[in-house]
Amino acid sequence: MPGVVVRALGHHYEVETDDGIRLCRVRGRLLQERSRENTLVAVGDRVEIVPEGKKKGQIDAVDERDSVLSRQRPGSNRPAEDVILANPDQVLIVFAAAQPEPHTRMLDRFLVIAEANELPAIICVNKIDLTGLEKAREIFGVYEALGYPLLYASVTEGRGLHELHELLEDRLTVVTGPSGVGKSALINALHPGLNLRVGDLRDFEGKGQHTTRSAQLIRLPFGAETYIADTPGIRELGLYEIDPGSLAFYFVEMKPFIHDCHFPNCTHTHEPSCAVRAAVERGDISAERYDSYLRVLDGEDLQLEEW
């Protein structure tokens, strides 16, 4: 029987099947075959189960993953992947045009995480009724110019909801963003009656809970397989794991210039004949985005309490 893992509960997993949710354990044969370097079963995995009674089962096989949201396994001294979420299609990053005031350096950090995991990122700017479209574009227009899909929305005015519905339909989407930007309100507006409470989609800034809770899928009642993912572990996705020499590759506007630098290991901070810094001086790269790159490189953006 096929299914999708929607939640992990210790050594058991909630698997959504055609006949409802089943609480499943991993079959012994699979446990014996597991690799220490890889996560055997993760939320988002497509699995085959052997039913046991009406509400239980055993996971007998795990399909090959198309994509992952992962990190280095905490406490491991050798390369070991900790899969936070299997098979995500995209990341939806929700910010508000106002209330709370948007901090684009935090947005840049989200984008680095998405780029490092090779996941398409969509930026949704909510609450534009508070500022107007022109003001919102002054803040976020640079990302539109970089090629990121940008959606301007307002739950109050019903703006952008049709476009958001189309972006989410039949996809598994990681929905994330700072506290208070209206993530749950946006999803509720797509389907009255869903009634996600504020906080059902965890805030990026939440403390403590992110280290102990696993990801969870929430199925939306439109499309054949439309899921949003609550991924508490995203706060621990390690920018610290990214080699400083590779960070610039995750700032998309820097990519065309990296190989023109004189030094192959250029950090784009102080080295002579740096093509990236020259592009900043010419205005080909936003000075604000370059400053954000420097701050991430220095580790400053890991201190989220400032937000």
Quick tags:
single chain, 307 residues, alpha/beta, OB fold (Dihydrolipoamide Acetyltransferase, E2P), Rossmann fold, Ribonucleotide Reductase Protein R1, domain 1, 3 domains, six-stranded mixed β-sheet, five-stranded mixed beta barrel, 9 helices, 13 strands, 25% helix, 24% strand, disordered C terminus
- Point out poorly predicted stretches: 204-212, 301-307
- Return the CATH architecture of the largest domain: 3-Layer(aba) Sandwich
Spatial order of the strands forming the largest sheet:
10-9-8-11-13-12
| C-alpha geometry | flat
Assembly type of the chains comes to single chain
User: Main beta sheet, described?
Assistant: 6 strands, mixed
Number of helices: 9
Overall average residue pLDDT: 86
In CATH, the homologous superfamily of the largest domain goes by the name: P-loop containing nucleotide triphosphate hydrolases
What is the CA-CA span between the terminal residues?
46 Å
**CATH C-level class of the largest domain:** Alpha Beta
Give the number of domains.
3
Structural description of this entry:
- The protein is an alpha/beta fold.
- The protein has 3 domains: 2-64, Nucleic acid-binding proteins (OB fold (Dihydrolipoamide Acetyltransferase, E2P)), CATH 2.40.50; 86-236, Rossmann fold (3-Layer(aba) Sandwich); 242-306, Orthogonal Bundle (Ribonucleotide Reductase Protein R1, domain 1).
- 25% of the residues lie in helices and 24% in strands.
- It has helices spanning 28-33, 104-116, 133-145, 161-168, 183-190, 209-212, 255-258, 275-282, 287-298; strands at 2-9, 12-17, 20-26, 46-52, 56-62, 68-72, 81-86, 90-96, 121-126, 150-152, 172-176, 216-219, 227-230.
- The strands form 3 sheets. Strands 10-9-8-11-13-12 form a 6-stranded mixed beta sheet, with helices on both faces.
- Helix 2 crosses helix 9 (287-298).
- The longest helix is centred in the middle third of the chain and has 13 residues, at 104-116.
- The termini are far apart.
- 36% of the residues are buried.
- The model is unreliable at 204-212 and 301-307 (pLDDT under 50).
